[in-house]
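User: I'm putting together a teaching handout on how sequence relates to shape, and I'd like one worked example. Could you take Integrase from Cryobacterium psychrophilum, show the sequence you're using, and then write out its predicted structure as tokens right after it?

Assistant: Happy to. First the sequence, then the structure tokens directly below it.
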Amino acid sequence: MTWTEDVDDYIRLRRQLGARLHGPEHLLHQFATHLTNASITAITITDAIAWSSVLPAGVTTPPATRASNRMTAVRGFADYMHALDPIHQVPPRGIFSDPLHRTNPYIYCRAEITAVIQAATALKGGSRAQTYPVLFALLAATGMRVGEAIALDGSAVDLDAGVLLISRGKGDPRLVPLHPTVTAALEGYAPWRDDHHDTARARSGAFFSDRAGERLKYAAVLDNWIQASTASGLRTATQQPRMHDLRHTFAVNALLGWYREGVDVAAKMPVLSIYLGHSRPADTYWYISAVPELLAYAATRLESSTARQLGKS
């Protein structure tokens, strides 16, 4: 069977079930031609994203809408192929859809993260200069959600093993291994906190606490983030990157690293999803469509594959 024959069978089946599919039929034959030219034998999510994102010249439809339409057509076909052979991956919903409700991520460079952490060491009052540099560094190094970090109990932080247990996040409980430098920073903070904070910490059980020993509140963390990012020069009247963008930066850097190393990104994506605590795979794959450099890597991968096959023909 060829890809074109597979598309024809799929279209025939859908029409027998009452679907029209005039637009999707045209798109899927283009997709079949691409798969054939690139000698791709199995549909992958990353390849589907890259193909859906490459829009023909002169298209007047908004890019996000056009890409979403292409992905919708591919998803239906991939679902059909997956039923025939599980080797084919089915793109999750939501990668291109709902563009108005997703803010484009701000990706920090290393110098910017360092500057914010350094600025946090100069925060005045209480124990802020000792607590917030460690907290911000933890967010940058692990991609944790802010709420997950401030919800950490001391019992969930295993500094001997260098592992955190995230049990109060959005998804299922998960283990987050730490880089040795992060473990060292937490090891330095924990005894300082015990020496300088009220013994009420023992009752709250919080790993990160304020001077009174109480668990940090999100409003206070956000206020200190704004102060530190402003003092570092990163936050201005026209540029206001969010604390949550530290999480986006971690995810994007992980993906970029894999692309640059030639790693099979499709095989690694489930690992990143679990590490980040994403309950929907689309939340992880979204980064490829949202960050131009990642999309360029995905597209280049497809172009290289196609060029190699055309050279052999």
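A couple of points you could highlight for students: The mean pLDDT is 86. The longest strand covers residues 163-166.
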